[in-house]
Amino acid sequence: MSPLPTCQTLLLEPRNGVLFITLNRPESRNAMSLQMVAELRTVLAAVRDRRSIRALVLRGAGGHFCAGGDLKDMAGARTRGSAAYRELNRAFGALLEEAQQTPQVLVCVLQGAVLGGGFGLACVSDIAIAEHSAQFGMPETGLGLLPAQIAPFVVQRIGLTQARRLTLTAARFDGAEALHLGLVHFVEADPRALEERLEQQLSQVLRCAPGANAATKALLLASVDQPLGPLLDQAAEDFAQAVTGAEGLEGTLAFVQKRKPAWAS
């Protein structure tokens, strides 16, 4: 198996079937630079077909998740005109698409600033765990900009009504409000409780078969915009393959034998 990519803006730590990815630009509250976007996309591509990596944990260094886009990159694009801004913006949208579609379970651990692009990353997670003091928001309109790439993912996550309010007021809010909106699944009082919740959720993920999780995630995402009849036809085909596949056979045999399946041992 090829080694993981070498990164300058990310820390990578594979451990017990989980890849821990830390955004590592603490001096800028982990603002999302073009280099960081490119490195994240490279890592996602590198692990996409690795069933030995069953979950990805994305978090930030220095007490912050991600404060949004890097203004230095935007300043650098100014000399190259609107095409450079378009390329810069669309690259982050591609990252969000790829993160949303990754076969692994994506867990976001949210502390400190969860703004702009960081907010978008939270919206494509499968499991989001926040510290109560985290600060969420989409500040773009207050800067004369728009949340161009994250907006569709925000609408999918929390609905159009709330997305309109939050984007058109550039509102800031804490973990409790994020839980109320359905943006996050858990809010914890302090870093220790945050780590305990993370370990609990990872232990539950690792009880599930990786192939079944990947297929289930794809089915759930497809249910958002695909016609129901064809979707159910494809789901039936996927189910038949699962029942007769290695995971299905092992899972049902383990149940009959009253033992853990191989992937959960």
What does this structure look like?
The protein has 2 domains: 10-205, 2-enoyl-CoA Hydratase, Chain A, domain 1; 210-264, Lyase 2-enoyl-coa Hydratase, Chain  A, domain 2 (Orthogonal Bundle). Helices cover 49% and strands 15% of the residues. The chain has helices at 34-47, 71-78, 82-101, 117-123, 151-158, 160-169, 175-181, 191-205, 210-222, 228-244, 246-256, and strands spanning 10-15, 18-23, 55-60, 105-110, 113-115, 127-131, 135-137, 172-173, 186-188. A hairpin with a 2-residue loop joins strand 1 and strand 2 (18-23). The protein is globular. The two termini are 22 Å apart.
Descriptive keywords:
3-stranded mixed β-sheet, 15% strand, 2-enoyl-CoA Hydratase, Chain A, domain 1, 265 residues, Lyase 2-enoyl-coa Hydratase, Chain  A, domain 2, 9 strands, 49% helix, alpha/beta
Task: Describe the secondary structure blueprint for this structure.
Blueprint: E1 10-15, E2 18-23, H1 34-47, E3 55-60, H2 71-78, H3 82-101, E4 105-110, E5 113-115, H4 117-123, E6 127-131, E7 135-137, H5 151-158, H6 160-169, E8 172-173, H7 175-181, E9 186-188, H8 191-205, H9 210-222, H10 228-244, H11 246-256
Portion in helices:
40-55%
**Sheet of most strands:** 6 strands, mixed
Q: Per CATH, what is the topology of the largest domain?
A: 2-enoyl-CoA Hydratase, Chain A, domain 1
The count of helical stretches stands at: 11
The CATH class of the largest domain is identified as: Alpha Beta
Radius of gyration: 19 Å
**Structural class determined from secondary elements:** alpha/beta
The CATH architecture of the largest domain can be given as Alpha-Beta Complex
Give the strand line-up of the largest sheet. Answer: 1-2-3-4-6-9
- Compute the separation of the termini in Å: 22 Å
Q: How many domain units?
A: 2
Could you give the order of the helices and strands?
Answer: EEHEHHEEHEEHHEHEHHHH
